[in-house]
Amino acid sequence: MASYEYCHLYGCARELIDEQAVKEWRQAAEAGDSTAMYNLAQCYFHGAGVQRNQTEAIHWMRRAAGAGISGAMYTLGGWYSNSGNAVEAAKWIRQAAESGHVGAMSFLGSLYVLGEGVVQNAGEAVKWFRRAAAAGDREALEALKSFESKR
Fold first, then answer.
1. 42 secondary structure, DSSP code
2. Which residues of 16-46 are buried (b: 16+ CB within 10 A; e: fewer)?
3. C-beta separation of 112 from 121 below 8 A
């Protein structure tokens, strides 16, 4: 069985997750454990230890995000972005960025550059790229340099 901490830190690797791990995470998630909610959502999304189930994945990821897991907020934003729902994506990416998720800060900057799910706004883009860059995100630093050189 995969360790609880392994999945939280490195994601659910399908080959390492068994039905017992999923059962334990479900019990913990139903008891309010936000990390278990996040792990369970990942398992349903990837089909790790359970049959793939997008509805269950979204349900548990939303619960984890609602419990304050910024990685869950970021993941939801990515899922909605990939499905073409830019407004919902931006909502979750903003929440993750405001919660301190560095990748979300950079992603939000890009959304403002492109005007995807938000009103295009160069000032907001720069603000979020700067925050991400200050937190050590090299891609955000490069985006910031590129963006500012075109202004």
1. H
2. bbeeebbeebbebbeeebbbbbbbbbbbbbb
3. yes
Neighbours of 90 (CB within 10 A): 20
Phi, psi angle pair for 74, to nearest 5° = -65, -45
Tell me how crowded residue 77 is: count the other CB atoms within 10 A of its CB. Answer: 29
Tokens representing residue 1 in the block: 């069985």
> Rounded CA gap, 116 and 127, in Å?
17
CA–CA separation, 26 and 110 (whole Å) = 35
pLDDT of 35-88, one tens digit each? Answer: 999 999 998 998 888 899 999 999 999 999 999 999 999 999 999 999 999 999
**Domain 89-151 homologous superfamily, CATH:** Tetratricopeptide repeat domain (1.25.40.10)
Q: Is the pLDDT of residue 106 over 50?
A: yes
pLDDT higher than 60, residue 12: no
Q: Tokens at residue 71, please?
A: 């990685």
Domain ranges of the chain: 1-67, 89-151
